[in-house]
Write a structure and sequence with these properties.
Length: 86
């Protein structure tokens, strides 16, 4: 592994470190990736109690995650946030 690869790997690990303590890691994906038209209420409730919520939302916005609940926001809510410039 060269220095560039090592630095990139270290950066990726740090960027995702919030996932280690995230509440979503302790539950199933069905909460965070519900069927179309299903409620996102349970996922948002878990996100609201998660210490990694802000990092999760930042990750989703940075990586243009288009599906599921990330950082307590649904796809539509993240889209609105991006359009508003936030």
């Amino acid at each position: 592994m060269n220095i560039t690869t090592s630095t990139t790997t270290d950066r990726a690990r740090k960027e995702l470190s919030w996932q280690e303590s995230a509440l979503c890691a302790q539950t199933g994906p069905e909460f965070f990736f519900p069927e179309p038209g299903s409620s996102t209420r349970e996922a948002k409730r878990l996100c609201g109690a998660c210490e990694g919520r802000i990092a999760c939302l930042q990750y989703a916005l940075t990586h243009d995650e288009r599906f599921g609940v990330w950082g307590g926001l649904s796809e539509k809510e993240r889209h609105r946030l991006r359009r508003a410039g936030g």
